[in-house]
Amino acid sequence: MKTKERNRSIWLMAALLFLGATLYAFPGYDEELADTINFKPYYGKVVDSQTNKALAFATIEAMGSNVATVTNIDGEFIIKIERKADVSQLKISYIGYQNKILDLSNFSDNDSHIVELAQSSIQLKQVTIRPQDAMELIADVLANIRTNYSGDPMMMRGFYRETIQRGRNYVSVSEAIIDVYKGSYTNEYQVDQVKLFKGRKSADVERMDTVLFKVQGGPNTTILMDVVKNPYILLSEEYLNIYDFRLSDVITIDDRLHYVISFNQKEYVDDPYYKGRLYVEMDKLAISEAEFELNVENQDEAARLFIKRKPMGMSIIPERAVYRAKYTIDEDRWYFSYARAEVKFKVNWKKKFFNTTYSTMSELAITDRTYEGIERFAGKERFKSNDVLNEKVYIFFDQGFWEGYNVIEPDQSIESAIRRLNRKYLKRTADN
């Protein structure tokens, strides 16, 4: 059942990490974010109106523009809007909740505004027209890609962050503003391209148990999580032989009814594939969100997908690999807007009496898009699939580093990690 293309697609999707035995360390940076006089920041936190629970990965859009961001794991966000822009409202949306429109005048300078969203649940039995066969629904989704997604290439700008943890402690944080050439959804030869615009990094200055843990591919790999542009990740021509699909629910996203299609690999399929949910807009039959995770029951085979190089005598066991992709709608077209990957490994090294857990998180938020100035990137400018972001960005202490660029607000644990790594770097500098 294996094909060359399918093996390649799984590798591109899953092979985010590799391990080596070389020591390497980077100093830290200042976490302060500042704005120029041309942009005004708006701070907020999105919570459930009944439970006050923080809503992570909610979408924040500046209405009347293509500017957007997402909330962090603590439900917090910052969105920077050009002062001369004709924008007066924000739209906040979250899966299973009613949209909320907020006037920018509701936000106080430098104070976080609490945004409460109300749940909007719909019982499946209340939907009078629904498909009887989830497999047929998926076939219709694939057939409608041409009409639901952009047929022309476009340029995007995004914010990318990746972190590495050893146990509960962060040992590396890297961030970048990237430019993206986004190829047409109807032309498979227009491959997405990424160019690094601006970035910074921080890493633990202490030994990492003689192990170097890197994230390979960075934003170039994360953008492949656009499962509509790259349907072979989940929905290759062989998906009928790989997955079982079922209609499990109907919910609202962005005030639109959505089918929830749950899927899992068939029992007789031995290779590691995915299980998860696809959220399909009911009217146009377009995928607006996807959540899925790799089957890691076959530990040896799953490890082969992830690990490019490791020391002799080291065993690496993938424990979890979870992915998410989101799209936003504008004038009846859906656009790729967010992707996140979280991978966790258990590492044993008998020779060094070494046993610990490593995990990585990478996320990409598209913060702007345009059909103007379309250009492919020269080969030397492109971020390639074997590049490592941490090796391509520099160490900065400039408090205004991000200026007016929209970023994902760092969550509390990342902020604490940056402060800790900074203290270690300053102490090391003082000792030297």
What's the short version?
This protein is mainly beta and about 425 residues long. The chain has helices at about 5-15, 135-145, 145-150, 220, 240, 300-305, 410-430; strands spanning about 15-20, 40-50, 60, 70, 75-80, 90-95, 100-105, 115, 120, 155-165, 170-180, 195-205, 210-215, 245-255, 255-265, 275-280, 285-295, 315-330, 335-350, 355-370.
Arithmetic mean pLDDT: 81
Helix content: 10-25%
- Spatially, the strands of the biggest sheet line up as 9-14-15-16-17-18-19-20-10-11-12
The rounded distance between the terminal residues' Cα atoms is 59 Å
Describe the structure.
With 432 residues, this protein is mainly beta. It folds into 2 domains: 4-30 and 127-431, no CATH class; 39-121, Sandwich (Immunoglobulin-like). It contains 7 helices and 20 strands. The longest helix has 20 residues, at 412-431. It starts with a helix and ends with a helix. The model is unreliable at 1-36 (pLDDT under 50).
List keywords for this structure.
Immunoglobulin-like, mainly beta, 20 strands, single chain, 432 residues, 4-stranded antiparallel β-sheet, 7 helices, disordered N terminus, 11-stranded antiparallel β-sheet
Write the layout of secondary structure elements.
Blueprint: H1 4-14, E1 17-20, E2 39-48, E3 59-62, E4 68-70, E5 76-82, E6 89-93, E7 100-103, E8 113-117, E9 121-122, H2 134-143, H3 145-148, E10 154-166, E11 169-182, E12 193-203, E13 212-215, H4 218-222, H5 239-242, E14 243-253, E15 256-265, E16 274-281, E17 286-294, H6 299-306, E18 314-330, E19 333-349, E20 354-370, H7 412-431
Parallel strand pairs: 2-8
Antiparallel strand pairs: 1-13, 2-5, 3-4, 3-6, 6-7, 9-14, 10-11, 10-20, 11-12, 14-15, 15-16, 16-17, 17-18, 18-19, 19-20
